[in-house]
Design a protein that fits this description.
Layout lengths: L10 H9 L1 H12 L10 H4 L8 E5 L7 H7 L4 E6 L2 H9 L1 H5 L3 E5 L16 E7 L10 H9 L2 E12 L4 H6 L7 E3 L2 E3 L5 E3 L3 H9 L3 E8 L2 E5 L4 E5 L1 E8 L6 H28 L21 E8 L2 E8 L7 H23 L2 H4 L3 E5 L6 H6 L5 E6 L2 H13 L9 E5 L14 H24 L6 E5 L4 H15 L6 E6 L2 H11 L4 E3 L5 H14 L2 E7 L2
Parallel strand pairs: 1-2, 1-4, 2-3, 4-5, 15-16, 15-18, 16-17, 18-19
Antiparallel strand pairs: 5-12, 6-7, 7-8, 9-12, 10-11, 13-14, 19-21, 20-21
Organism: Chlorella sorokiniana
GO molecular function: RNA methyltransferase activity; S-adenosylmethionine-dependent methyltransferase activity
Pfam families: Methyltransf_12
């Protein structure tokens, strides 16, 4: 999908990610619990200083993947473990080994703002680990974080560091074409709002030496991983270092000057980007936030804000044209929006069902909400609009929020599912010819989509359209796209029961029937979302 957008996240959004880092990491642990990271049994091999340290501080402890292996290899160490995600600390405390040991103290702390000596005796730590921690912090705050950690170390204490290195495969993906996830030099935001900085060895050495550390060792720790299923090799790059604390912290004023200089540089960078964007006639305006200018369009658009789960979106939405049918148009638009939001909520509630799938959304509203939601779990999502104008607006809204998702998994497609009435006695020759041409175009669009996805789709989602012609066309197009995937589901949503009953009656004519046995996750989500949103769902599949 050609998003035609700058690589850098808008400044207002970038500031939000920096300021709300704890919130995004807390949401990460609420989603993944203890299932994401593996225990780091390699630590003692890479950092022998941990074997005989009497007091250890683990910064960014997560769910204890370093803490509890450390207790095994050093049976006498007193371990302090902190993280700024409250859910992570709760999971550490819920670990069976935490309650069984008096040698671990876990607490919540933001190392860029909190005084760690309120929880850890000042100057008492022999070894401190910062494993994939500093990369989550904005570059301008990294020295401040190091200074607060240094206050806990005794003179001669060791700081053991490992983090992402510049040139890592993940950095290349985040900086790839069509992405809008760069916050600054070597600094990126992932789809879930968590951030990652990719270090050079020079940067690592500079920030630690500026805070009173002496470098004992620094070097690369690269790995070539193989995904046998996909036949891919992944070049993972890390930087690893050991520092000794001299006991002589730097002056805070030095860091404040650095912060101001970096903020000014960032502001200038964003100003230059804005000038470049406005100076080019092809530069889209839709990526801007807040007071973004309305795209030049024949139809008036309103600026709408809503949340997709915990992710805030800003969208352009069409306003019904003035006229005698304004009330009906407003009601239809409201129904399409309510159904679209409910479908997106359903997708978010079914991670197992949508995991690694191909998903098709037949969009009746102005934003591809269900497709964007599916990007969290699926392998590929297609958002289909019924006209060129509809696809253009879907693209604008995907563009505007592209930095929040793995957007290269999204494809936009025109699929004109509306059908004209077949009463040829009431149609002139010109109308009949237009209808035949429209049907040929739709069939060609369906064939193009089938060629792009020869295995078909595992699920299709749509709001029930208001007219019978649109409903018949939608069911026909959905049946074609789902025909190649056994057990594929068509999930329909409407704001009232009458529309659902109309869809039930029309489904049989397209070889579709109500799904009998649904996955428990889907059944539960359908009931929960329908109750909370006041909408109605219908789940169809091919007749057996």
């Amino acid at each position: 999908m050609d998003l035609c957008k700058p690589a850098t996240v808008p400044r207002s959004q970038a500031a939000k990610y920096e300021q709300q880092g704890a919130r995004y990491w807390d949401l990460f642990y609420k989603r993944n619990f203890t299932n994401f990271f593996k225990d780091r049994h390699w630590l003692a091999r890479e950092f022998p200083a941990l074997l005989d340290a009497a007091a250890v501080l683990e910064v960014g402890c997560g769910v204890g993947n370093t803490t509890f292996p450390l207790l095994e290899v050093n049976p006498s160490a007193q371990v302090y473990a902190c993280d700024y995600a409250p859910t992570a600390v709760q999971l550490v405390k819920a670990h069976p080994d935490y309650a069984a040991s008096s040698r671990v103290h876990a607490f919540v702390a933001d190392i860029t703002a909190d005084d760690l000596t309120a929880q850890v005796p000042a100057g008492s730590i022999d070894a401190c680990t910062m494993i994939f921690v500093l990369s989550a912090i904005a570059p301008r705050l990294q020295r401040r974080a190091i200074r607060r950690v240094a206050a806990t170390l005794r003179p001669g204490g060791r700081l053991l560091f490992r983090d992402y290195a510049a040139g890592d495969l993940c950095q290349e993906r985040l900086a790839g074409e069509g992405r809008q996830q760069q916050l600054g030099d070597n600094f990126f935001v992932r789809w879930d709002g968590t951030c990652a900085y990719y270090f050079t060895e020079e940067r690592v050495r500079a920030v630690f030496e500026a805070e009173g550390f002496v470098c004992e060792y620094i070097g690369a720790a690269n790995k070539l991983l193989e995904n046998r299923k996909k036949g891919e090799q992944m070049d993972r790059r890390f930087v690893q270092a050991v520092f000794t604390y001299t006991g002589q912290p730097s002056a805070a004023a030095d860091e404040e000057d650095e912060d101001k200089a970096e903020e000014q540089g960032t502001a200038q960078q964003h100003q230059q980007q804005q000038q470049q964007q406005h100076g080019s006639p092809q530069a889209p305006q839709c990526h801007q936030q807040g007071a973004a200018q309305q795209p030049q369009d024949q139809d008036p658009l309103s600026d709408v804000q809503l949340n997709l789960g915990s992710t805030p979106l800003q969208l352009w939405c069409r306003q019904p044209a003035r006229g005698s049918d304004t009330a009906a148009a407003v009601e239809a638009a409201a129904g399409a929006r309510a159904a679209t939001e409910a479908l997106a909520a359903l997708v978010l509630a079914c991670p197992a069902f949508f995991h690694n799938t191909h998903v098709l959304e037949l969009c009746s509203w102005d934003a591809p909400l269900a497709s964007l939601a599916a990007l969290r779990w699926c392998r590929r999502a297609v958002a289909a609009g019924a006209s060129e104008a509809a696809v253009a607006l879907l693209r604008r809204n995907a563009q505007r929020n592209g930095h929040l998702f793995v957007i290269e998994r999204l494809r936009l497609q025109q699929l004109t599912w509306q059908q004209q009435p077949e009463n040829q006695q009431q149609q002139g020759e010109q109308e009949q010819q237009q209808r035949r041409q429209g049907e040929q175009e739709r069939q060609q669009q369906e064939r193009q989509l089938l060629r792009a996805f020869p295995d078909g789709f595992h699920a299709a989602l749509a709001a029930v359209p208001p007219t019978n012609g649109e409903l018949q066309g939608l069911l026909g197009s959905a049946r074609v796209q789902l025909s190649r995937q056994p057990g594929a589901l068509l999930l329909l949503c409407a704001s009232d029961a009458a529309a659902v009953q109309q869809a039930v009656a029309a489904a049989a004519g397209h070889g579709l029937q109500q799904a009998g046995c649904l996955p428990a996750e889907v059944t539960s989500a359908v009931h929960a979302v329908a109750e909370s949103s006041g909408t109605q769902f219908l789940v169809l599949q091919h007749c057996i």
